[in-house]
Amino acid sequence: MSMPKRQLGANGPMVSAIGFGCMSFAGFFGAADDETSLETLAAVEAAGIDFWDTANLYGMGRSERIIGQYLKESSAQVTLATKVGIIPGPPRAFNNEEDYIRAELESSLEKLNRDKVELYYIHRRQQELPVEKVAETMGKFIEEGLIDAWGLSEVAPSTIRRAHKVVPVTAVQNEYSLWTRQPELGVIQTCEELGITFVPFSPIARGALGVADLDPAAFHDSDFRKSNPRFMGQNWLENMEYIRAFRTYAAKKGVSTPALALAWVLHQGDHLIPIPGTRTKEHLADWADAGEIGLSEDDLWEIEQILPAGWAAGDRYADAQMVGVERYC
């Protein structure tokens, strides 16, 4: 298997068309084990996935430390992205001020065993601070060699345009999958127009489009999805009807459900680099070859009939989780 490559931003490096999200290493989707996480990273490297994504928030540095340990003990050559800006609550707050970002960046670099990161995101915007000011701050870090490029997460097209005028934005990261399609209403198009890579996170619908049915009643107490409306009660029962139909279609095509879901995302534009995540190398194997799956116009039409835009019952976040996300439609 050969992993296809895509360019990160207008002037960035060529990276694997499928990236890897490291949020689950911090226990957001159930209890995580550091040794298992290190084994998963080895499998990720072996699969040719060289674009890794984390954040200072994930386990309050736990995910970054695991990556740093792996990089220290291996010869892996990866393009790293991490994020800053969320102060966990309750209540959740946000800080995009230069002094705070600098201190957090220095802390992240220490955990990652790096002198710089290739991509540094504002995880959520601090609304009372003009994004132009934030862009200036990121520009300073680029000039100082602490980061190669910067990005934004969960933002509106208008924010992207404002920021890009000051210091070019390399990547924008928003949730996007077959059950979360709001970015089609402006973000994906804006990124393409401006030469920005769009990085879909949760492209396999937080595991809902996995190889087997999930049982929300069995979720670990720490699992982020326990309070997610789409996994609750009647919403989940309705969603499973659609998911099982999609799983049947994937089986007819001879591919796994998550691989087909990921292939669909990849087919939405060459400027998309999705970052699925997992805690185990076994689940990685379910979708690592998605870049090799070709989809015809007929395939895309059939998928649209099975999972039409807006099919998912329930919001993608609980109200508390939605704080900080820019709404634009």
From TrEMBL:
GO CC annotations on file: cytoplasm
SUPFAM superfamilies, per the entry: NAD(P)-linked oxidoreductase
Pfam families: Aldo_ket_red
Keywords for the protein's UniProt record, in alphabetical order: Oxidoreductase
GO molecular function: oxidoreductase activity
Residues in NADP-dependent oxidoreductase domain copies: 17-306
Highest taxon in the source lineage: Bacteria
InterPro entries: Aldo-Keto_reductase, NAD(P)_OxRdtase_dom_sf, NADP_OxRdtase_dom
Protein name: Aryl-alcohol dehydrogenase-like predicted oxidoreductase
Organism name: Celeribacter persicus
